[in-house]
Amino acid sequence: MIAYHGRHLDVVRMVAEAAQLAVLPEPPRRIGPLAVAARYQAAQSQARIGGDAYAVQRTAFGVRLLIADVRGKGMGAVSAVSVLLGAFREAAEEEAELPALAGRMERALLRESEQIPPPGATLLLVTDGVTEARDHTGTFFDPSARLAGHGPFGDPQEVIDLLVREVEEWTGGPRDDDMAVLAVTRRPAP
Questions:
Q1: DSSP assignment letter at 126
Q2: In whole angstroms, what is the distance from residue 3 CA to residue 99 CA?
Q3: Are the C-beta atoms of residues 101 and 64 closer than 8 Å to each other?
Q4: 84 with 112: CB under 8 angstroms?
Q5: Is 103 helix (H, G, I), strand (E, B) or coil?
């Protein structure tokens, strides 16, 4: 029985590693006059899949670089990274201006999120004023951990109010950075 679980774990790790490499291939070592290096390293030594991403692409508008950290772990995060990188690769070729490129990637993620959550799910978007808020020991605020177990939320304002209270409690005083929060709750079909 132990041998079976060991083999099963090895297979799961190989599949996870293959998925990660398919989504996040190594960039070329040289692009025009630039030398490039990248590394993906999971936080846990046994994990080989996650939501951090990078991309390097030469376009008619110059070399475009992307670095991203998608909230979550496992296949859900890999799915979001896949959508983000696909949107980046396409939009980088077509958008001359970086704000337009960012807008196309955001729209792709929002389209994908509309397909994933069942009615009642809430998509919460935050700036680094939330994720980089620190407590008195210097520990960063983790919205996922602090909001776990709350909900479901009938109104997106409820999750924002809860998040703001949690951040204020976490920091115990003024924050060092501005904070912007957007929540969208998918309503059941009429």
A1: E
A2: 52
A3: yes
A4: no
A5: helix
Q: Provide the 3-class DSSP secondary structure of residue 91.
A: helix
Parallel/antiparallel/unpaired status of strands 52-59 and 34-35? unpaired
Angle at 148 between CA 142 and CA 150, to 5 degrees: 125
By CB atoms closer than 10 A (0-12, 13-18, 19+), residue 167 is: buried
- 185 CB neighbour count, 10 Å cutoff: 20
The model's pTM: 0.55
Q: Which ranges of 46-155 would DSSP assign to H, the alpha helix?
A: 74-94, 98-115, 128-131, 143-147
Structure-token pair, residue 53: 């991403």
Query: Which CA distances in Å does 85 have to 59, 66, 81, 105, 118?
Result: 15, 9, 6, 8, 24
Tell me how many degrees the CA angle 29-34-35 measures, rounded to the nearest 5.
35
Q: What is the pLDDT of residues 111-162, one digit of tens each?
A: 876 655 575 567 777 878 888 889 989 888 888 888 888 877 777 888 888 9
Closest among 118, 122, 182, 117 to 152, alpha carbons compared: 122
Q: How confident is the model at residue 94 (pLDDT cuts 50, 70, 90)?
A: very high
Packed helices 74-94 and 2-23: angle between N→C axes, nearest 10 degrees: 10
Structure token pair of residue 65? 């670089």
159/166 Cα distance (integer angstroms):
10
Taken as a whole, the chain contains a residue count of 190
